[in-house]
Amino acid sequence: MGIVVDKITSKDNQQIKFVQSLHDKKTRKEAGLCIIEGKTILEDAISRNVEISKIFARENFAVEADTIANKCTSDVELFVVDEELMSKITTTDTAPPIIAIAKTKEFVDPIFDSASSIQASDIFLYCEDIQDPGNLGSIIRTAFAAGVKSIYLSPSSADIFNTKTIRSSMGTVFAGNINYIEISELLNKFQTKCQDEKLSCEILGTSSYSESSYNEIRVSQQKVFMLLVGNESRGLSKSAIDSCTQLVKIPMANNVESINVLAATSVVLFDLRHKLCQS
User: Fold this and answer.
1) Are 149 and 183 spatial neighbours (Cβ–Cβ below 8 Å)?
2) 148, 244: one domain
3) pLDDT over 60 at 1, yes or no
4) Radius of gyration of the chain, Cα coordinates, nearest whole angstrom
5) Is residue 208 part of a domain?
6) Range of the structural domain that residue 57 is part of
7) Residue 101 to residue 94: CA distance in whole angstroms
8) What is the signed CA dihedral for 160, 166, 170, 174, rounded to 10 degrees?
9) Exposed, middle or buried: residue 166 (CB in 10 Å: 0-12, 13-18, 19+)?
10) What is the percentage of the chain residues whose pLDDT exceeds 70?
């Protein structure tokens, strides 16, 4: 598409100030925009039809940035900056050669959209109070890789459009539906949706205090699954645990007390997906 090329040399330039403003969560939310840092994640976002409005590239990367911009489906403004200016608008220790401003993508929610249906063997994920953006991004990447249909987050969880979350997810924050919602509202709607579709629902929770191993998760062709995972240090809240139809733990060897929430989520999701594929 048409590209407007401009070279920026001043840190007081309005475009530079605009990018810097998007490091603030409230500004991102109000603008419906986020920052993508790095070539690989940007190209992945473009392949997922994420709308890109501006690209900022270091001088020695301008030609390649122009090639990338031309893969976009709408007009993109391309700005060339030096390494010092790039370091002022990025969050990484070493400034990447390219960043972009992207429109936050919206998806149809399969549970809350009345026109959508859910299927037997679908898996959904709820993350309660995940605080570290890096953890959250990695969990999102893992969940979508394991075939999770939709991800839900408690309102207190980290921002999915934080640059660290986007980097840790390797751009998979744009891969599918992710919503912030209170757990009570979600589970209410989830159970109702399952009833309407004449499916049974299983609400799984991870807890080191459970007497059941994740290997004992019961699967069937008529079940839909919602996995609940909790805060990095505290795990799931009591109200979340009380909502579960089955609590599971991951048995540990060598007197290891626990593993982190990312590892636990990965183990349970991929094991569950494997069982469902085999059933």
Assistant:
1) no
2) yes
3) no
4) 21
5) yes
6) 3-103
7) 19
8) 60
9) buried
10) 98
**Can you point out the beta strands (E) in 193-233?**
200-206, 223-229
List Cα–Cα distances, 213 to 47, 210, 250, 267, in angstroms.
39, 8, 6, 11
pLDDT, one tens digit per residue, over 146-181 is 999 999 999 999 999 999 999 999 999 999 999 999
Query: CA 34 from chain center: how many Å?
Result: 13
Same domain, 96 and 129: no
CATH number at residue 80: 3.30.1330.30
What DSSP string describes 141-176?
HHHHHTT-SEEEE-TTSPPTTSHHHHHHHTTGGGSS
- CATH number for the domain that contains residue 268: 3.40.1280.10
pLDDT attached to residue 258:
77
pTM (global) more than 0.90: yes
Tokens of 220: 């069937």
Same domain, 85 and 129: no
Among 106, 47, 71, which Cα is nearest to 55's? Answer: 71
Mean pLDDT of the chain: 93
Give yes or no: residues 181 and 247 share one domain.
yes
Number of domains within the chain: 2
The Cα–Cα gap between 191 and 218 comes to 18
